[in-house]
Each structure stands twice: as C-alpha cells, then as structure tokens.
Amino acid sequence: MTKATIGENHKRFLEEMNAAEVRKTINEKTVAILVFGACENHGDHMPFGSDFIFPIEVAKRVAAKANNVIVFPPIPYGVSLHHDQFQMTMSINPETLVGLICDLLTSLVQNHVSRVLIINGHDGNIGPIEISARLIKNKHPNMTIACLEAWWVLVGQLKKDLFEVWSGLGHGGEAETSALLAIRPDLVNIELAPREIVPRLPENIRIFWKFDELTSTGATGAPQKANMKKGHEILQTLEDVLLSFIKEMDSSDWKYGLYLK
Fold this sequence. Notes:
Blueprint: H1 3-9, H2 19-25, E1 31-36, H3 50-65, E2 69-71, H4 94-110, E3 115-120, H5 126-139, E4 144-148, H6 151-158, H7 174-183, H8 228-251
Parallel strand pairs: 1-2, 1-3, 3-4
Helix pairs in contact: 3-7, 3-8, 4-5, 7-8
C-alpha cells in the first residue's frame, strides 16, 4: 500500500477531499459531523477563535477512531449578540444562523446523508441549532440529527472532581482555558488570565443577560486554575462520550425510540 493510498483511506475532512475520494467514501450510512463556533473576546488570555478551534479538534479525534465519519468545515461565526459590548465581536443574527444550518442540513439530505452529529462550541448557537434541527426533522423525518450542545457543561457534570471552581464553567474559564492549553498552548497567555469571577445568578431560573453585565474582562470563571492536564482529561472525556454515542447508534442502524421495539 502506497503512502498516497494510506492518506486517501484516512481522509476525514471534506475540504481536503477531491470528488473521486468523496465518491469512494461517502454513502447513505456516513455520519456527517458539523461544527459551530463563534469569534469573540474570551478575555486577554484566550484566542477569539476558541469556540471553533477546540470543537474541531474534538471532531478530528473522533473521526480518527470512528468508521464512516466525515467532518465538514467549521462555521467560525455564531450568535454573539450578548457579547457585542466587547471589541471585535463578530456576530450573526439568530435568523441568519437558523437559515444557514437549515441550508446545510438540506444539502446533506440532497446528498443522501441522513446521519448528523453537531458539535457546538458556543452558548449563543444552542437555540438556533435546535430550531433548525426541528424544522429540518419535520420536513425530513428519516433524518437523525444529534447535537453535543454544551461540552463545557457536560464535562463538569461527568467529572465532578476535575475542576476547582464553578464546575469548570465560565467564558474563557477553568474548563475552556484548560481545553485550549491541551491543544494549542501557543494561543493561551495564562499570565494575562483575569482574576476569578463567578457571577451571582439565580440557581433555578434563567436570566437572559448581556455579557458585560457579568464581567468587565471578557471572561468569567477561574481561568487561573486551568492547566494542561485538566485539558487532556476534558478531551478524553468528550472523545469517549462521542465515540460511545456513534457506536451505540451504529449498532441500531441509527434508529431509536419506538423503532427499536
């Protein structure tokens, strides 16, 4: 087997594939991984692209171990209206994101790909992703659309002893900073990490805040508590969750609910 053949067999990113490779690789059982992020201030210590840099790395690791998975180019902009008081926030309107996601999902349907896994890296995208998924699911009931909505919440729930403050939560906080330290330490300047700030918010009722009501630094949580070791554990946890999900869904031919009776 030549080096070129090895490379072709292991290509998992659509933007790196040519038409011949796509024809050989993609079929009706292919799982499409879509990544949605944002471009916004994450404090003085973190890059603006954190919300897509990290989830695309997670997608890369999952695709390397899962069968018949294709990762699509990440969307680097999200709904960041609540961050617009911070310099260089690049936001799109919710309606724009809903339309974009619906168009992408429709394109998958037209290409006979009906198994979709969305990895989201930004809180402002959660609502538009759900609206889009429900609209497309209603039009195309045979499509299965799954989503890891908020990895930063999930890791705190699964790894209760991993974080020191606020279950790792925060924008550019303990979990998110640790995650970037694990994959792109060159983009994190921990010396500029702001002091710990855990906003006072009601426990059981959600307030739809603007981010400058919570912090003046562009970050919340405890970024100074972040380290690379925590980041690698975050990566492994998410990789395990997503691979387990894909394996389980593959075993049932991506059927669920009453279809399994």
